[in-house]
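Q: I'm writing up a methods section and want to include an example of the input and output format. Could you take the sequence below and give the corresponding predicted structure tokens, formatted cleanly so I can copy it straight into the document?
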Amino acid sequence: MIRHVRPRALALAALLVIAPLPFGSVAPGPAAMLLIATLAALALALWTPDAMTEGGKMPGELALATAALLAIALLGWLQSVPAPAAVTRLFAGESARLSTQAHELAGPAPGASASGASTGAFVPFSLAPAASRSAALDWLLPAAGFAAAAWIGSSRRVRRTLGGALLLAGAAQVVIGVAQWILRSNTLWGVALPVMGTRLRGSYVNSNHLALFLEIALAVAFAWVWWAVRRTLLDGGRAEDRLLSVGPPAIVFLLLLGGLVLTGSRAALLSALAAMAVQGAVIGSRRGRKWLLAGGLAVGLAGVVAIAALGAEGTFSRLAASSVDELSGGYRIEAALATFDLFRLFPLTGSGLGTFQAAFPLVQPPTIPGFWRHAHADWVEFLATTGLVGAALLGIGLFFYGKRLRQVVLHGERSEGRAAGLAALGALVAVGIHSCADFGLTMPANALALAVVAGAAGATRVVKQRP
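A: Here is the clean output for your methods example:
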């Protein structure tokens, strides 16, 4: 079937497979190449006229969600641009105060008056303009991936191609991780990595970031299992045919679940189980399908028990060895509270997109010393660095996308389209919960995977409802 899929889908699918391989594409070089390639994939999608959805145009909700992502990137760039000092004092008073203080400590520049040096004619909102410009480019990646998938995702062949690519990428990560585990290797692509015990990390440096990628793929696999079971029950047929229909998605699901457990990420397991519970609740909410809810959760729990029985240093052994303080988040909660203090210093426009590393020392308590690049809580960090303006933009995007996703899940034109909506719902729930305790979305490969799954699902055609 893949030979019938046009290059616009194959290009985006190839990016899903390749993106995680160079350490999650987090290094500057791979990140830049991934952004350029994703923008090229978007251009290819837009260049193809018959790729458009629903009557020749992108659904309005998806267009607004795309605009919200682009607006966040634009906000980051605007934060980095020097503004008149009076404007900065009005909208980002703390940034203006710190800039004035820095000028006073540095003294006047040669040939400049003392008064002019102390005030500064132009002051950016961002505490680290270069970091904000870089973060603005980072936000272009999920925006472009989401728009490309939304533009071409109305075709079920395209959705199958993209979903299959993500599952292939997830399976490849598990295989790479297991090979490292068997060999007890602490190197990847010739680079020595920190010792991580027997926790799987695939081609990521941090096992928790691999876990988030696997959560997204697992949500897709869960939806595939549901769709295969539903189709098998409706079509009937011989037992061999039923096994061939349900067997592959079940195997992929258990493989990804096993990899997730072996990453040893407690937040990831809890997030994935919560996502499956939500997906199962949506399936079971339909009349006469309560048994599917119980069946889906039973499959997931059976996989968890099977992996736990291996005795690896995985999630359950870490949970059993955790103290109450560790389970409550410990230092991460304290860092999140300090990050919220940072938001109170920059409530309107934030300290600047991508400036957490530069801004956190302003509020860092002595009880959590060290060098913090991220807050280990994506939601709080985003609030602190973009303020109420950024939170409003993100909220608008999520609102309109959620509205569209609800239509897809409830009124998708085909069961396969509703399964795509179910996959996106599970991925968003899992990532949303996990991001309360980690910063996995700062990995470009993870952000791209989530954006593509969400965009393709949102493009599914829906049955028009009568007033």
